[in-house]
Give the backbone structure.
Amino acid sequence: MKIFVNADLGEGEPAARTRALMQTIDLANISCGGHAGNLASMEFAVETALKNNVKIGAHPGIVDRGTFGRHATGISADALQILLVSQVSTLAAVANRAGAKLNHIKLHGTLYHLVESTPLLAAVFLETVGKYFPKLTVIAQTGGEVEKIAPAVGVSVLREAFADRGYDAYGYLITRGEPGAIIESVAAAKKQVIQLATVGILGFGKPDTICVHSDSPQAVRIARAAVAAVA
């Protein structure tokens, strides 16, 4: 089974990096105005994805530009629903104008981790996707709450792991800011992707897709290494 490489894009990275990543990856998670992005960045990312036959996905996040959506403390179920419908619909409208359709949804940053660690929020997330965006696949953390609940509500899931984030001895992501949380070495990232593709995450199994973050200066080289590792 093919392992896809995905990247979070439209987050303020240089345009040249966006283009280079789009020439490499399978799936683009495009920021849709929450933690980052605006209509112009969405239009550029969608058009670039179309030129490179990359599948387009929404990358909604908590509206928290100052911390890039990575340090919010929580979100209510109602706020999560409104955020999802608003941000995903915005990107869907941009894609539709360009003659494209969305393929998937992947949450960003703190929102991703809150939903993956909170059964109530995971259920609300999936119910909202199933109701308003039933044709879209969800990219979810391997071993997280979303993957566990999704089959019961009929939402398809791609299990995700990370090329450029460190894992602890128990198979969990190391918290940003702690030693080993960020992998900057291309060689180390490729080694991790090979392990993820062959062995998987300890206790959770193999992923269906590998993520590369576009805010890394080495993002393009890591993405190319990841593609080579799963070929």
Remarks:
- The CA atoms of residues 1 and 89 lie 31 Å apart.
- The chain has a mean pLDDT of 95.
- Residues 4-230 form a domain with the TIM Barrel fold (CATH 3.20.20.370).
- Helices lie at 15-22, 39-51, 77-97, 109-117, 119-132, 145-153, 186-198, 219-230.
